[in-house]
């Protein structure tokens, strides 16, 4: 407020009679300049989500701008290669899913920028890391439903004779495979380890058995565990013969009778056997 007065004796410093005064009001409007950049409440944001998440807010970022009006109004945006999997509400800073996260396992890190609406605008940046975790949603798959191999009967117990090939599109423990042999007589001759290697457990004998049908089951170590597709892998093991047995005559001795005179072309025959091999007779 400003006051104006008349009839004042400035020399003697007193108000003369009949003086008058008047007042007026002056308003001073102090306007804001955009001199404060937005400041995030955290310099890094972390969150964990499962690959199956398809909607909903994952997290919300927040930045404060001490200016007022448009200078203090903040808009949010995300940048970076991994940011294409997500979307952010520019007004609230809420981050949600923009793309299918299936099999996108691991950390997805990108930047988020808060920019005010001043002229010129000011901004600040922080980082977001989303850890996408695996769920057990893939069955183990055998490369093929069956296979056939041949091994000699002289193969030593403890020898690896085959490796099962199986795949699981999950990750970590969900992709770990547990193997098991079906409880059958043929399977007692074999053993399978944690890597899918089939090893011979007992000595083979071609003369006693030449074909083994080994049934193998598999499942993953996830929770809940998922069985393999197909449920059973059939490994046919052909045992090949080696010449480890001498020929055996059908009868240990025999007697032939011939008449005197010119020698006949043949006086008799003998028979011997040797599994899988041709025989040559001499005297």
Automatic annotation (TrEMBL):
GO CC field: plasma membrane
GO terms, biological process: homophilic cell adhesion via plasma membrane adhesion molecules
Compartment list: Membrane
Any one Gene Ontology molecular-function term assigned to this protein's record: calcium ion binding
Keywords, in A-Z order: Calcium, Membrane, Repeat, Signal, Transmembrane, Transmembrane helix
Name of one Pfam family that matches: Cadherin
Main location class: membrane
Membrane listed as a keyword: yes
Domain of life: Eukaryota
Annotated membrane topology: Single-pass membrane protein
PROSITE patterns: CADHERIN_1, CADHERIN_2
Domain Cadherin as annotated: residue spans: 2-40, 41-142, 143-249
InterPro entries hit by this protein: Cadherin-like_dom (IPR002126), Cadherin-like_sf (IPR015919), Cadherin_CS (IPR020894)
PANTHER family per UniProt: FAT ATYPICAL CADHERIN-RELATED (PTHR24026), PROTOCADHERIN FAT 4 (PTHR24026:SF126)
Name of the protein: Cadherin domain-containing protein
Protein species of origin: Octopus bimaculoides
């Amino acid at each position: 407020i400003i006051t104006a007065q008349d009839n004042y004796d400035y020399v003697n410093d007193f108000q003369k009679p009949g003086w008058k005064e008047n007042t007026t009001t002056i308003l001073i409007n102090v306007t804001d300049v955009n001199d404060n950049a937005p400041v995030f409440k955290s310099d890094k944001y972390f969150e964990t989500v499962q690959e199956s998440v398809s909607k909903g807010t994952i997290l919300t970022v927040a930045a404060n701008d001490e200016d007022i009006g448009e200078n203090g109004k903040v808009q949010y945006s995300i940048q970076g290669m991994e940011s294409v999997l997500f979307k952010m509400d520019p007004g609230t800073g809420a981050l949600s899913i923009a793309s299918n996260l299936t099999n996108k396992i691991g950390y997805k890190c990108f930047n988020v920028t808060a920019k005010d609406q001043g002229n010129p605008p000011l901004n600040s940046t922080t980082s977001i890391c989303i850890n996408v975790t695996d769920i057990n949603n893939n069955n183990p798959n055998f490369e093929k439903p069956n296979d056939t191999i041949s091994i000699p009967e002289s193969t030593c117990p403890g020898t690896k004779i085959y490796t099962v090939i199986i795949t699981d599109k999950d990750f970590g423990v969900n992709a770990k495979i547990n193997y098991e042999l079906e409880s059958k007589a043929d399977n007692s001759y074999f053993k399978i380890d944690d890597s899918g290697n089939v090893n011979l457990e007992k000595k083979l004998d071609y003369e006693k058995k030449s074909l083994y049908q080994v049934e193998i089951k598999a499942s993953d170590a996830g929770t809940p565990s998922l069985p393999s597709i197909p449920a059973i892998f059939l490994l046919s093991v052909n045992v090949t013969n080696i010449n480890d047995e001498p020929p055996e005559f059908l009868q240990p001795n025999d007697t032939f009778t011939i008449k005197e005179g010119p020698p006949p072309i043949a006086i008799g025959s003998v028979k011997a056997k040797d599994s899988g091999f041709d025989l040559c007779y001499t005297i």
